[in-house]
Amino acid sequence: MKNYAENKRVEFDYEIMEKLEAGLLLTGQETKSIRTGHASLKSAYITLHGNQALLTNAHIPKYKFAGQLKDYDPERSRPLLLKQPEINYLRGKLEQKGLTIVPLSLYNKGRHIKLEIAIARGKKQYDKRRTIKKRETDIEVRRALRG
C-alpha cells in the first residue's frame, strides 16, 4: 500500500471524528499522474450533489507523457465511488452543525486508487494554539531526555 498524496493540514485544522474509504473515478492519464506522485489534496474537500459525492478542488496535473489533451482541467470535480447508503450517511452527517467531509490521503489498494475521507469538526483558534503548544512541549521533552 503506497501513499501518493496526503493532506497534512487536516489534522491541524480539524478534529477527526470518523474515517472512511472511497474509490475514485479517474481517467487513465490521471491515474498515471497520481502514480508518479503528482497529486495534491491541499485545498480539496468533498461535496454532495444529488445522489453523488464529488472530490472538489483536488489538483491532479496532466500526465507529462499523455500528448495533446484538449480542455483538460486539473482541478475538475471527480466522482467518488460510494454506495447509496454511504452517501446518505454522509449527507446526514453534513446536516449536523459544524461537521464537514475532508480528504485525508490518496493511496493504492491492489491496483485501485482509493481516497481516505474523514468526517471532521473544525477547530477553534484556541484549539489550534493548544495543539501547537503540545507539539512544542513534546519536542522539548524529547530534547531533554536525549541529554
What this model shows, in words?
By secondary structure, this protein is an alpha+beta fold. The chain has a single domain, classed as Small Protein B, Chain: A, CATH 2.40.280. The protein is built from four helices and seven strands, in the order βαβαβββαββα. The chain has helices at residues 9-13, 28-35, 84-95, 125-146, and strands at residues 3-6, 14-24, 45-49, 52-56, 78-81, 99-109, 112-122. The protein has a seven-stranded antiparallel β-sheet. A hairpin with a 2-residue loop joins strand 6 (99-109) and strand 7 (112-122). The longest helix is centred in the C-terminal third of the chain and has 22 residues, at 125-146. The termini are far apart. The model has no long low-confidence stretch (mean pLDDT 90).
Describe the structure concisely.
The protein has 147 residues and is of the alpha+beta class. 32% of the residues lie in helices and 35% in strands.
